[in-house]
Amino acid sequence: MEDKRYDPFPELVEYFYSAVEKNFLFLSIDLGFQEGERIIDVGKGNSTYDKATFPQNIWIFSASKKYELKGESFEISYGDRESFIQIIYEKGKTKYALWQIYEAMGIERTVISGSQFVLNTAFMEKILSDIALGLKKNISNILPISKNTEKIIQANVERIQLEWKLKEESREIETAIEQAANAFREKNYFKVVAILSKYEGKLRPAQQMKLAYCRKHLH
């Protein structure tokens, strides 16, 4: 029996464009957004999508379609290495993922674009339909985006960046502690000091004591 958990990428790309044009039709019909072309990038830069020339054996690509109105736009895209669907709002040099806007405005969402692999047409239809329904419901509250919403988005970005930095630093410290433990067993106190001194003030008490002990025994 054929496994329909995964559909071929050429079929997925073709379906993506059709599903976007169907589900996001309200942007042009109801709100006057100008519907853009079907754009594809298979590693050679953006070009107009042509089903007849789309490579049959490819897994890295980016398919997109944009809707524009008076300097504002929504771009729906599919592909990249993770086969995600994304929707990006753009005005001038400002770009926000739709989920960032929802988060900043406290709008509940059932789907977070960009969070899931989309590898079959049935799931793609559900994702695009859910995103479009949410946007249609909330677009009158979203546009125009207020300065306060932009400030909240930026604060959220900075918070996420700080959390990521702290997690990375925590992993680095744990690696350093393990390396220092190996050096300590070898009585290589110089190496212990070199490893742990970088994180002085951020170490647990036991590691601070080990650092002090090794410094003392260097002299």
Helices and strands in order, then pairings?
Layout: H1 9-23, H2 25-29, E1 34-35, E2 39-41, E3 47-48, E4 62-69, E5 72-79, E6 84-91, E7 94-97, H3 98-105, H4 121-142, H5 147-185, H6 189-196, H7 205-216
Antiparallel strand pairs: 1-4, 2-3, 2-4, 4-5, 5-6, 6-7
How much helical structure, as a percent, in the residues? 40-55%
Count of helical segments? 7
Radius of gyration using CA atoms only: 25 Å
Order of helices and strands: HHEEEEEEEHHHHH
Mean pLDDT: 89
Biggest sheet architecture:
7 strands, antiparallel
Structural class: alpha+beta
**Regions with pLDDT < 50 over 5+ consecutive residues?**
none
> Could you tell me the strand content as a percent range?
15-25%
Shape category: elongated
Number of strands: 7
Distance between the termini: 74 Å
Counting structural domains, the number is 2
Explain what you see.
This protein is of the alpha+beta class and 219 residues long. The protein folds into 2 domains: 9-145; 155-216, no CATH class. Helices cover 50% and strands 16% of the residues. It has 7 helices and 7 strands, in the order ααβββββββααααα. Strands 1, 2, 3, 4, 5, 6 and 7 form a 7-stranded antiparallel sheet that branches.
